[in-house]
Amino acid sequence: MNTQEIIKNEDTFLIPTYKKMPVALVRGQGCYVWDADGNRYLDFYGGHCVTALGHCPPHVVHAIQKQSEQLLFYSNVVYNDTRAQAAQLLAEMAPLHRIFFCNSGTEAIETALKIARKSTGRNGIISTANGFHGRTLGSLAATWNPSYRTPFKEVLASAHYFAEFGNLESVASILDKKHDIAAVLLEPIQSIAGIVEGASDYFQGLRKLCDQHDVHLIFDEIQTGVGRTGTFSISEQFGIIPDMITLAKSLGSGIPVGALLLSDSLSDEVRYGDQGSTFGGGMIAMSAVIATLESIQHNGLMEQAPKIFDQIATAIQPLVRDVHGRGCLIGIRTETPSSELLPVLREHGVLAGGSADPHVMRLMPPLITKAEHISEFAEAFRNVVTTAHV
Beta 124-128 vs 181-186: how paired, if at all? Predict the structure, then answer.
């Protein structure tokens, strides 16, 4: 099928989700993807921040192929060597060492909220304005955007409170007034909001506040995790350890998988029957996790992330108002709305993303990005902005 046939079929038979780019991708390799008509694109979007190793990384592909010939699936009602290896490797790389494998980021968030509530006996959750945590009912209740929450307000869990991101006093005020708080949940970098960052002392202060009030600190690292910002967990850069960390997206290099990481003390409170997932920890997903983590660990890719950020910022800084973010999670602030720039950038062979801030374009390049890819992006971006005042 060509691009138009693919678009017609999807629009006919699938319910609407995202407003899609008018592109039908059929192949990917490294930093590039190709559409059904043979056009090549430099992919600095990564399918919602997923392809941290680029497309079809050989080590991951080989691992999946090998596992598919051995055992496609058995649930975690039995033990399995691939799952055991994935858990050990993840625990060795992450700052928390007890793990629950699931299928997606929103499922990891749901599990974290359940554990926080059960372990404390309290129901309140503090999350942050402009944060995003998922679309299932529990995670949706902690997501800021009213347009997502309002249609379901009658069935969403109660006792959710929103603090101002980056403002420690805003969190402290809620904790002082409300005595039902089980956890503080936040993205360390608010990606969809426009790559919004908090200062290190903010996160250090949150850790102290949570300890003082005996509530759990949960880092939603579905986008910042797995080395994308320069360390496996961005918490390492702040000198703190959350009680729970959620992972997904980059963890499986495109194979659906999520994980919740817990502290030893918190995991000791989990009992049989508290959690479950038929497909969580499945063999294909676990083989992808192993190969992804091995690739990141053995090739020094986490250390490349800050260098990639600096090179991209240097290449385009004269053309834009601001470049912010960390590692391979980058926001570009422009005068011209990104909704006007992105289609033109796509015509120049580059995929990037927008955000809730109309003037912030998001880049989520893979950790394998090289100087030649950055030069290619910078040239395309320069060509775009010559026709628009950014």
Answer: parallel
